[in-house]
Amino acid sequence: MRSMSMLIVVCSLAMSYGARTPAQGLAASSLPKPARVVFVCEHGSVKSLIAMNYFNRSARERGLPYRAVARGTAPETTVPGTVREGLRSDGFVVSGFVPRLFKASDMDGASLIVSFDQDVTKIVGGRARHMRWDNLPGVLADYARGRDEIVRHVDKLIDELARSASP
Predict the structure, then answer these.
(1) What sign results for the dihedral spanned by CA atoms 31, 35, 39, 44?
(2) CB 103 within 8 Å of CB 88
(3) What single DSSP character describes residue 41?
């Protein structure tokens, strides 16, 4: 009887200090779906693809709950060789990436849309925050220069998101 009373006391204390049953621990440990960022350029395979790759790596490294996708207003069928090779040398694998059209359904779950020289206001329609990163250097003519400018913008965005996520 005494050991049963002790067990009840120990369990009560453990629960009051945040201990969870296995089922509660499973539910509590499931992470919410990351907020979605959509990068949109004309072909969905150049500026938006570079931004997506650098954004996702940086967000993951900083533990931010965001995940980006790349879309195009007039997508090409493949990634240009210059971009594919440039990203490969930067440590990214895009051989399986297929450019996709930016559609209204991309707004589902999106918290931010970033467009490169594309007017996507009709699709965004105020459903998410929209930023325009227009007039950045061309990537196909000079990959390093274009990439560096996109990465500068991505780094500033990641810093902003990290500050807003801090308590």
Answers:
(1) positive
(2) no
(3) E
